[in-house]
Amino acid sequence: MAELKRIVVPRLIAWFEERIDLAGFRALIGHKVVPIHRHTIWYYFGGMTLFLFSIQVATGILLVLYYRPSAEEAFESVQFIMSEVQFGWLIRSIHSWSANLMIATLMIHLFSIYFTQAYRKPREITWLTGMALFGIALFFGFSGYLLPWNTLAYFATKVGTDVAGQVPVVGHLILRILRAGDDVTGATLSRFYAIHVAILPLAITMTLSLHLFLVQQQGMSIPPEIERDPKSVPSMPFFPNFFLRDLVGWLSALAVLAALAAYFPWELGVKADPFAPAPAGIRPEWYFMYMFQTLKYLPARIGPLEGEVVGVLAFTMGGLFLALVPFLDRRSARGERSPLFFWIGIGILAYMVVLSMLGYLAPGGK
Amino acid sequence: MDTLPNPRRGFINLLLGSSFGALMVSMLYPVARYLIPPTVAEPSTASVTLPWKPGDLRPNSGRIFKFGSQPGLLINTPSGELRAFSAVCTHLNCTVQYRDDKQEIWCACHNGVYDLNGKNVSGPPPRPLEDFKVFAKGDQIVISKRA
Amino acid sequence: MAAARWLLVAALLLAGGALCGQLEAAQGPAPENSCITCHRSIGDPRVTPPAEKFAGDIHLAQGIFCQDCHGGDPTSLDPERAMSRAKGFIGKPTHQAIPPLCGKCHSNAEYMKRFNPTLRVDQVQEYYTSVHGKLLRKGDQKVATCISCHDVHKIRAIKDQQAWTYPLKIVDTCGRCHGSAEYMATYKIPTDVVAKYKASVHFQTLTKGDLSAPTCNICHGNHGATPPGINSVANVCGNCHSVPAELFAKSPHRTAFASMNLPACVSCHSDHDIHKTSDTMVGTTEPAVCANCHQENSDDGRKVKSIRTSLDGLRTGIDRAEEILTRAERAGMEISQAKFDLHGASDILLKMRASVHLADPATVDAFAVEGEKIADKQYEKGVQALKELAFRHQGLWVAVGIILVTIVGLILKMREVDRRQSPPPSQHA
């Protein structure tokens, strides 16, 4: 064993270095550090999201081996995976649970970056790519949800694309492009499948690569109040110290996923019947709930516009605000704390939490 | 600044190495089993292979088989032709049967009668039975939905 | 005085004639049908409604007008000519005259062929065999005639959903008389039949969209309406419920009931308020129907109990299997084959319940044995599915165990690596 480490491995590395310049890589491994302070814990969430995403890619590729993307066969193929394929139940349940966990850790990551003002100069582009990744992840969730072609998914997609159709001017065009027609049909399923397994993976590969490259280049951001003197902040090497800690987190997440798959297998439901009336209490997944509930509360008309249009515009404005925060928050650009934006962030977070809870607890919801 | 090599360090490495190994096995084992296709190669939505040979059914007889979650009726007509229909009566969903004495398909619940083309000819059933395509080749009978 | 009266009538007639004459002038050339024209415009509640309704009548659509039933001359707006006896005008027909009047065409095969060769032409003949027809011949003025069930002047096609004779509407058509205690007071037959029927399972099925479900005319007949006699009830019910009827005919109950002048089927299932059957109808204590005749401790009573035991046995076997399979399904296990096979046991339960009419415990028990075998097998499959579920849980704990051990190893490694980074202070002087 020791022989392997002392002689064989160095020889192997030397062979590669004669052919590929690994200097940059060596530097990264050798010199990447992680600052240690009272907000260090938030540094884990980006990597956790990445880990859960890898789980999605792996389980997703396995599912593609048996899944059939047509209205006639989709539901039955998922049923087949759950019942006939060895460990199919495990792969499928992990895929569904991990999608939700990933979006949860992504949101924690997003808000922790926001509240520690890590978006400030020089990390504006990183923030923008991050917001793009957030949008891509939500689209992954939305498109993937339809694929089992069960009643809940069918109607959730109908409602969701209806909301998309409320965008002024181009709304109907967007709706038709998403649905591959005027209604949700087998054509919609094929299109969502293409989006989920081809278009979004391409988009996320490019965006994620840029995001990760920037993070490696610029290193970890330190919150303004701690960053008086960067040299005085203690740090630990990323490799192996922080990485070992990362692994503990990732393996814990893996254990949680396995337990969820075994004790709370993801439901299959009933095959979608486009001619049946919508079941009572349809609602989207939790990460869309606050928007759904907000639209429910808006009156039918606000001034000259339809209530839903105002809602969609408001969400768009909110998203735009978040995306442009590095450019709007002048104080953080100067390296100072920014109480105004802090409280705006608290407001946004509170709004999302409260509306989501109302979506589940309010009468009329489930 | 390295700590001196000691048995404790070796133990940690051994523990870590072997538990990682076990973890890899416990992750790769399900994946490997998953990749091997199951005996029933595909979901039986649009078609199903029956567990009988074409010769197993005498002329003027019928048998119930499973198609998806619903029963189907395979009949061998008196003239020796294999036909298949949904066995769910279009009246109130009882399971129909073949009557060799009357050479018709009959529903015992309310005396509904279908002819050998599945058409509802007498009694309460409002619609014909859904008919399926039958492929009898060699040792196999494959039933599939129309269009 | 009489002269004055006659003068008044003449004046009215002249006025009426002038009015029609003016209408004729106003309308220009000769109107299509003077009956309709005049009767619609007069506004008299006795004669206007029929003229207004008639637009929706199938006879009008076929080119048959007022004069074809009532006689008279439809080309003249002069009431004396239009409604003259010489032109065959009969006015409002008497109650007794209605069936022959309709029968003038509807019993004429040559004539009806012109419109629809498949139409029957024996309705009037049938009618006179019915209770209604017989009473009519005796002079009854209240009994139903053609126009009581066919909405005269707005008679719709057979398949028209608004027709008084459309299956969904029949109970209300018959019920106009047979549901009114007041109207039927002189006839000494029950008038709660409409309410009873509307509470029945047949009516529920009918209103849920199954137009083949029986309503009044299916059991009582249309034109030859007569309640089935004691000896023919089984035939009527047996037209649809053939299996129970055949079995009943082979059972000891057939002769027993006949000798006691009890109708088959109806004695246990009632005639109008037929409810969905249930296993609780079989037994030796109320509310079971067998208890009406059989004592608990008699030989027959023991047979009844045996049949009930068989029924309960299969039903609980099926329920048990269904319960465990549902549990397995909710936990994420795939048991669709077992559910399908269990359906086979439910089919046998259906046959078993029909076989109750044979009143033979051995037959019923044979079904129970066959069905329970299937139900038990599916129950076992449910048990297997739950065992597989437990196995998965075990597998999970093994995996979680390995992960925990790995995490422990990682933490130990972490500590060691951290110590390497910053050696403990005591190491240096």
Please provide a written account of the structure.
The complex is a heterotrimer of chains A (366), B (147) and C (429). By secondary structure, chain A is mainly alpha-helical. Chain A has helices at residues 2-17, 23-31, 44-64, 74-83, 88-115, 124-146, 151-164, 171-179, 186-218, 238-263, 286-297, 307-328, 330-333, 339-361, and strands spanning 33-35, 235-237, 301-302, 305-306. In chain A, helix 5 packs antiparallel against helix 6 (124-146) and helix 5 packs across helix 10 (238-263). The mean pLDDT of chain A is 91. Chain B is α+β, with helices and mostly antiparallel strands and 147 residues long. In chain B, 20% of the residues lie in helices and 33% in strands. Chain B contains one helix and ten strands. By secondary structure, chain C is mostly helical.
What topology emerges from the helices and strands here?
The complex is a heterotrimer of chains A (366), B (147) and C (429).
Chain A: H1 2-17, H2 23-31, E1 33-35, H3 44-64, H4 74-83, H5 88-115, H6 124-146, H7 151-164, H8 171-179, H9 186-218, E2 235-237, H10 238-263, H11 286-297, E3 301-302, E4 305-306, H12 307-328, H13 330-333, H14 339-361
Antiparallel strand pairs in A: 1-2, 3-4
Chain B: H1 7-35, E1 47-49, E2 61-67, E3 70-76, E4 82-86, E5 97-99, E6 104-107, E7 112-114, E8 120-122, E9 131-137, E10 140-145
Antiparallel strand pairs in B: 1-10, 2-3, 3-4, 4-9, 5-6, 6-7, 7-8, 9-10
Chain C: H1 2-27, H2 34-42, H3 48-53, H4 58-61, H5 66-70, H6 79-82, H7 98-106, H8 109-113, H9 123-127, H10 131-137, H11 146-149, H12 167-178, H13 193-198, H14 201-207, H15 216-220, H16 233-238, H17 242-250, H18 252-259, H19 266-269, H20 299-330, H21 336-355, H22 361-421
Helix pairs in contact in C: 20-21, 20-22, 21-22
Radius of gyration of chain C: 38 Å
N- to C-terminal distance of chain B? 76 Å
Number of strands of chain B: 10
- What is the mean pLDDT of chain B? 89
Query: What is the makeup of the main sheet of chain C?
Result: none
Secondary structure tally: strands of chain C: 0
Largest sheet of chain B: 6 strands, antiparallel
Number of helices of chain B: 1
Tell me the strand percentage band of chain C. Answer: under 5%
Q: Which pair of protein chains has the largest interface, and what are the residue counts? A: B-C, 30 and 35 residues
Strand order of the largest sheet of chain B: 1-10-9-4-3-2
Low-confidence stretches of chain C: 27-31
Share of β-strand residues of chain B: 25-35%
Q: Please compute the radius of gyration of chain B using only Cα atoms.
A: 28 Å
The coarse overall form of chain C would be elongated
Distance from N terminus to C terminus of chain C (CA atoms, Å) equals 153 Å
SS-based structural class of chain B? Answer: alpha+beta
Helix content of chain C: 55-70%
